[in-house]
Amino acid sequence: MSAKLPSSVQTLIDAFNRLPGIGSKMASRLTFHLLRQSDYDVNRFISALDGIRHGLRDCSRCGNIAEAELCAICQDSSRDNRQICVVEGPLDVIALEKTGAYQGVYHVLGGALSPIDGIGPDQLRIRLLQARLDELLEEDGEKSVELILATNPSLEGEATATYLQQLFDPLAAAGKVTVSRIARGLPMGSDLEYADPTTLLRALEGRKSLPPNS
Amino acid sequence: MSAKLPSSVQTLIDAFNRLPGIGSKMASRLTFHLLRQSDYDVNRFISALDGIRHGLRDCSRCGNIAEAELCAICQDSSRDNRQICVVEGPLDVIALEKTGAYQGVYHVLGGALSPIDGIGPDQLRIRLLQARLDELLEEDGEKSVELILATNPSLEGEATATYLQQLFDPLAAAGKVTVSRIARGLPMGSDLEYADPTTLLRALEGRKSLPPNS
Q1: Fewest beta carbons less than 10 Å away: which of A43, A45, A136, B102?
Q2: Which residues of B touch A31 (CB under 8 A)?
Q3: What is the pTM of this model?
Q4: Under a CB-based contact definition with an 8 Å cutoff, are residues A185 and A201 in contact?
């Protein structure tokens, strides 16, 4: 079948097909969509791809994607740099920023602990987080730093959160750092009937008392 | 939120987001996937896109995508050029070729009749199909030509099939052309209970008698 397509068309289908979440039918559809587009549109796509090859780096403070030494969030002096939300990747930063409610900063680990994939603490930005905390506490030892563990509610994410909690336990015991974990529970719009037992267990554990009206 | 991302990253997210079937979350995921790839992989994607900008054309006989005057299927002398399957687009050719069962050739209309979108017979490759039939009948007037109408089972596709059936009715009445329409019915693996009434009606209309065993 593939021998019937011009090689340049098959090459682009293959290129799309290599991207995560794009199957062969979707790859064909995207390719034929671009074939119908003007040269201008295809060129725009090419230069967009070209754009990410240069000038991008990891923020030296938090590991988020950046154009300069520091990312836009770390550069923003209006954000509370003593409230640090620890996430696995830059996509998590985007998701949390969309809530519009968080005014602290982030620390992007670059993944989660996964011994089976050879990812231990040294493969993540954990030393950088320790150094960052030390620096903040040196700056002002009286004011505590808040650490919000927002790794994914997956096996690896939970393990990473537990590891970090234990790592910073001495600092927490000394009252220098407060550590919290984002709530696990039923997502909005979901159905209790279809929730898995672990999610329901977390939802029960995380229940909040409602104060009486009036 | 978007102001927080480097502009080159946002530009690529937007470029992916403009493609059909790719939402903003998927576009972010694809972009960050490519950010983690090597320069080699990104370059390979860029050159794949670059490849489709040149050297591609429509087959002058059937309208399928081609690298030369004729597409690979029209060039293939082992295919029966008196059996023509009429489809809306080149993706339909790929789908039919995947069955591995069809040994005829194709005619790619370039869409379906849709007056609301300003697509009439002149916007499709219908005159080319007429000229093609005339030429085949001139070559050998004794042997009839088979026309398989394989436009989509949608409103537009059905209208196009009806239009073509009426257009070639004189040739069919003269026994020069046999016109057929691909079967509409229940797809394999589907559930009768969930089928829509039109599909069920077509399935009933298209029923085949089963000869008695032995």
Answers
A1: A43
A2: 52
A3: 0.76
A4: no
